[in-house]
Structure formats: C-alpha cells, structure tokens
Amino acid sequence: MCNSNENAGKEEELRLENDFLKMKLMLEQGAQFGNMGTSDECPAEIENQFLRNIIEFERQFAEQKTIKVFDKIGRPTHFRSVNDIPEGKIDEAWRQLDEYLNSYSIDLAVCSPNISNKELYRFTVEELFEYEMDDMDMPGMTHCFTYDEFHPDHEFDNTNVAVNDCIAPMLVKKPFEWMHHFRRDGLRLNDHFPLTEDEFKLLVNRFHDAMKISSCVK
C-alpha cells in the first residue's frame, strides 16, 4: 500500500515538473503543446525524458559548436587511402569504416544506386573526415549524412522525379492535383499546348474518368 502511494506521488511530481518544462519551452522557444493538463496517454517518466531531451538539444544547438568529423571519431589512423586498398578488399574496408562511423553515431547514406563502395570509402576518408559538423551529443542521437547532397547524381535524380513525381501520378486512379515538379505555365500534354496548371489537371483527370468508365463497361 505504501509503495503504491509512493509511486503515485512520484508520478504526480513528474507530471507537475513536465508542465513546468512545457511552460519553459513555450516561453523560451515558442513551443506549442496541445494539452497542458495531465494526460494518461504517455507515461510521465517518458514524457519527462522527452522534454529534457528537447531542452538539452536546444541548449547545445544555441552554442553552435562545430567539429571536424575526423576529430569527432577520435582521429583514427588505421584507415588507408583508397588507392592503397586492393580491389578485392574494398567492400570489406568500406564495411569496417561504416561500422566505425556508426560506433560514433554517424551514418552515411546514399540514394543513387550508381555509387560504389569504393567511392563511398574514398569520399569518407578524403572529404567527409574534413567536414565541419555540429558538435552535439545526446542519447540516441545519430548524425546523418547523405552522399548525394555532396555529389548529386543528376541523371538518377531527374529520372526519379520524372517517373515517380510526374508520370506515375498521372497514371494512378486518384485525382491528379500535385504539380510541384511541373512548370507554372506553357505545359504540353500530347498535342495540347500551351496549357496552364489548371488546364493540365483537367485533361489528366478527364483521362482518369474515361479509364474508370472503361473499367466499369468491361
């Protein structure tokens, strides 16, 4: 019985502290919270840790400290130049380097399928190591980098946009509305030119309607 009352007391103390932390974030950072009252949806302990993490993140971010990736990962000396690694060993060398980065909560991703492990290794050792990153450390925080942001594969990116963001939306059954990757005017659709955005949408949606009717007839 005593343990139950003690636990309930600690829970209430945490909820009161959480309300205080929310108010602090609202006043100092302009944060917004939908419910300032007690909520049973999230345990007070988890919410408390979440709020403290936000405050700590804002504190470190405000300091604007930076550090080279090479210094962040302890200035390793065992990663050789890519030219010194035999072709048959490069995949293993990249795996070891990638795991080493991960051990320091650093992740390097790549979107283009045209980038080899050899190039990822070269880029990391020759370029990423020298990059100035935010010097921030928090439990569970990972610093993520994307190779393509440094060296875009324009052919892959343009093909992706054309297929997934332009052509595919025109062929699905739902109404065609999203045109962020289209020009504003002077659009062409087959022999229809020039078209405004609204005229282009109208033609595509008429095509969608015709396809629905055709499916019903069958």
At a glance:
Helices cover 55% and strands 10% of the residues. The protein has 218 residues and is mostly helical.
Radius of gyration: 27 Å
From the N-terminal CA to the C-terminal CA, the straight-line distance is: 71 Å
- Total number of beta strands: 6
The tally of domains stands at 3
**Total of helices:** 8
Name the average pLDDT.
87
Helix content: 40-55%
3D shape:
flat
The largest pleated sheet is described as: 2 strands, antiparallel
Write out the strand line-up for the largest beta sheet, numbering strands in chain order.
1-3
User: Proportion of β residues?
Assistant: 5-15%
What would your notes on this structure say?
This protein has 218 residues and is mainly alpha-helical. The protein has three domains: 2-63; 68-150, no CATH class; 154-217, no CATH class. 55% of the residues lie in helices and 10% in strands. The protein has helices at residues 2-29, 44-63, 69-72, 90-103, 117-126, 147-150, 154-171, 197-217; strands spanning 66-68, 106-109, 132-134, 143-146, 187-189, 192-195. A two-stranded antiparallel ribbon has the order 1-3. The chain has a two-stranded parallel sheet with strand order 2-4. The protein has a two-stranded antiparallel sheet with strand order 5-6. Helix 4 (90-103) crosses helix 5. It is flat, with a radius of gyration of 27 Å. It starts with a helix and ends with a helix.
Tags for this entry?
mainly alpha; 6 strands; 218 residues; 8 helices; single chain; 3 domains; two-stranded parallel ribbon
Topology:
Blueprint: H1 2-29, H2 44-63, E1 66-68, H3 69-72, H4 90-103, E2 106-109, H5 117-126, E3 132-134, E4 143-146, H6 147-150, H7 154-171, E5 187-189, E6 192-195, H8 197-217
Parallel strand pairs: 2-4
Antiparallel strand pairs: 1-3, 5-6
Helix pairs in contact: 1-2, 4-5
